[in-house]
């Protein structure tokens, strides 16, 4: 009790949920071959989950630092996309120059700008809709943190279309992930005001469940967001 009395509530919370920790790293850009400095998330403690599956973290939000952008040419991706074995085709390098470098923002890029560039590059690389959709969803999450409602809606729509495309493709989504991605499409449509599309997709969630024991939460979330939508899952 003595110890507890000495600790303020904020300090106590930090002990229970330590804030996100970062480390400075240097990355070699595979597009322009310049080395640049970035920040890597080395630990984070996640808290509540929003109904679009964004997870809140303690301290400085880590989301914008889970993606890196070369400040010279704008090439963007996860840390692995800057690995030593990464080699870009001449066509891809040209597209980066023409469509990303040419329109790069002045000053440090925001999280949503980095994810948008990474989504474009993923689209040009192999076009895997699941991977592109994930990056677009993260761009939308960043827009919430950045307070940009218009861009948030733009990325939510683009993510919903890409997740739909992934679900339509033959092996684009693992069987056990279909229910949660179906739910996500519904929730994205609901959040941009497409009530009819949202209702349609919420009703498709239960038939996609393959394990009722571990996926009951998806059925419950779909019912909640269809009937009495809330901001956070729990
Ligand atoms: Zn570069």
Task: Walk me through the structure.
- Helix 4 runs antiparallel to helix 5 (129-146), helix 7 runs antiparallel to helix 8 and helix 7 packs parallel to helix 10 (212-227).
- Helices cover 51% and strands 12% of the residues.
- The model has no long low-confidence stretch (mean pLDDT 92).
- A hairpin with a 6-residue loop joins strand 5 and strand 6.
- It is mainly alpha-helical and 234 residues long.
- The chain is globular.
- The strands form three sheets. Strands 1-2 form a two-stranded antiparallel ribbon. Strands 3-4 form a two-stranded antiparallel sheet.
- The protein has ten helices and six strands, in the order H-H-E-E-E-E-E-E-H-H-H-H-H-H-H-H.
- It has helices at 2-6, 9-16, 90-99, 111-125, 129-146, 149-168, 178-191, 195-203, 205-208, 212-227, and strands at 21-28, 35-43, 46-49, 55-57, 68-69, 76-77.
- It binds zinc ion (ZN).
- Zinc ion binds at residues 29, 31-32, 34, 70, 72-73, 75.
- Residues 29, 31-32, 34, 70, 72-73, 75 line the site of zinc ion.
Q: How many strand units?
A: 6
Runs in which pLDDT lies below 50 for 5 or more consecutive residues are none
Please give the alpha-carbon distance between the first and last residues.
30 Å
Mean pLDDT comes to: 92
Q: Are any ligands bound, and if so which?
A: zinc ion
Radius of gyration: 20 Å
Percent helix range: 40-55%
- Total helices: the number is 10
Percent strand equals 5-15%
Structural shape: globular
Class inferred from helices and paired strands: mainly alpha
Q: Give the H and E element order.
A: HHEEEEEEHHHHHHHH
Largest sheet: 2 strands, antiparallel
- With strands numbered from the N-terminus, the spatial order across the biggest sheet is 1-2
């Amino acid at each position: 009790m003595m110890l507890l009395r000495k600790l303020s509530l904020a300090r106590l919370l930090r002990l229970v949920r330590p804030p996100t920790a970062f480390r400075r790293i240097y990355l070699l850009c595979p597009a322009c071959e310049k080395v640049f400095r970035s920040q890597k998330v080395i630990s984070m403690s996640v808290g509540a989950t929003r109904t679009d599956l964004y997870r809140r973290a303690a301290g400085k939000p880590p989301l914008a630092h889970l993606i890196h952008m070369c400040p010279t040419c704008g090439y963007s991706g996860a840390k692995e996309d800057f690995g030593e074995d990464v080699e870009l085709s001449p066509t891809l390098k040209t597209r980066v120059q023409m469509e990303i470098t040419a329109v790069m923002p002045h000053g440090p890029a925001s999280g949503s700008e980095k994810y948008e560039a990474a989504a474009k590059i993923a689209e040009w690389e192999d076009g895997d809709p699941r991977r592109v959709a994930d990056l677009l969803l993260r761009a939308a999450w960043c827009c919430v943190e950045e307070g940009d409602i218009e861009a948030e809606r733009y990325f939510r729509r683009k993510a919903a279309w890409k997740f739909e495309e992934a679900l339509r493709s033959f092996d684009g989504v693992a069987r056990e992930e279909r229910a949660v991605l179906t739910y996500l499409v519904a929730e994205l449509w609901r959040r941009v005001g497409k009530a009819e599309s949202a209702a349609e997709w919420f009703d498709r969630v239960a038939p996609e469940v393959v394990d009722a024991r571990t996926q009951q939460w998806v059925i419950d979330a779909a019912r909640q967001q269809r009937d009495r939508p809330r901001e956070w899952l729990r």
